[in-house]
Amino acid sequence: MTDIAGTRVRGAARWVRRGFVAPTVLVTVILGLYPLVFIIGAALTRSSLGKPFQEFVAFDQIAAAATDTSVVGALVRGVAYAIIVAIASTFLGTVTALALWRSALAGATARVILLLPLALPPVVVGVLWRLIFTPNGGLIDAVRRIVAPGTDPISFLSDPALAIVAIAIADIWEWAPLVTILVFAALLGIDREVMEAASLDGAHGLRLLREIAIPAVLGTIAATFVIRLVLALKVFDLVNVMTKGGPGDASSVPAWLVWKAAIEQFDVGRGAAITLLLAVVVTLITLPPILIARRSHG
């Protein structure tokens, strides 16, 4: 009888916990499911900005987007951009976190300074760096006049090869502090006794970082890389403010193409088709680092 009563109590407690969690799960499912259903429906039909789901066209729009050279080019460009930016942000952020951890600069003032780029809206960051890259009167142009007077100004945002590089620099400047803060927080969580024992065993300086600190926060570094990769894959604000996808299609990325198709050209169906292709690419690109991050945490 006691076992039966105990089983009933545990069962009742389990249902109570489910009851508390159910509203959150339901809201999450609805908020995630509705946009997904809408995007799939729009991709399979002729849909304009004002009149969605007009005519069922099956996979015609998806196939057209998948064979469109501008879309394929934007996907390839976006993936290459995201990987490079994520690697650079993770490396710089981790190095900065390690430097703060081993120095006297790890105070509140340093952390506030690091958080300033994160506090700025992406649109403001784009405007700021657009001014910095201005060929006549910008910060880089002012440095050029001092270092190499008489040389021609460099039009970063008008050069097909340099436009995407300029956006990447702004992107790294904005989000590398996020990596720094997350890795720095993980470093602060390392057991002091472990550090003291390593010091007694002769681990100092770079050896201490290589053998103790970095392995201890490797899971956090991998996780921040995944976060940074996802953020870079869906970059839009910086492109919109700094280059408008130009010159030509030199800095066109998938998120920009989705906005251009759905908002500028009122073709929601094409925008939804590109979105589905981007979702597939994002899944394929982020799955390996996610698995590595889980293994690192394990």
From TrEMBL:
Protein name: Sugar ABC transporter permease
Keyword Transmembrane helix: yes
Listed GO CC annotations: plasma membrane
Organism: Microbacterium sorbitolivorans
UniProtKB keywords: Cell membrane, Membrane, Transmembrane, Transmembrane helix, Transport
Location of this chain's protein in the cell: Cell membrane
Similarity field: Belongs to the binding-protein-dependent transport system permease family.
Membrane-spanning parts: 20-44, 79-100, 112-132, 161-190, 211-233, 272-293
Major subcellular location class: membrane
PROSITE patterns reported in the protein's UniProt record: ABC_TM1
Statement: the UniProt record of this protein carries the keyword Phosphoprotein: no
InterPro entries listed in its UniProt record: ABC_transporter_permease, MetI-like, MetI-like_sf
One of the Pfam families matching this protein, by short name: BPD_transp_1
